[in-house]
Request: fold
Amino acid sequence: MIVNLKCGICKHVYDFEVGEPSMDKSSKLVFEKKPVCPKCKVIDKELLTERGQSQMTAWYLGDL
Reply:
């Protein structure tokens, strides 16, 4: 699944193929592939953009 993300370090907005999203036992969102910012190359410091939040909401509601 491609999700719209924003880097928590350099604030660059990008789309990333996260694989299959899931939820852990504490209801935290977990991605199959760790996002890497294409601009600063930081790993696993992503934030969901508004579009990304909508994508994850649609995924979650579709999974119920």
Summary: The first helix runs from residue 50 to 63.
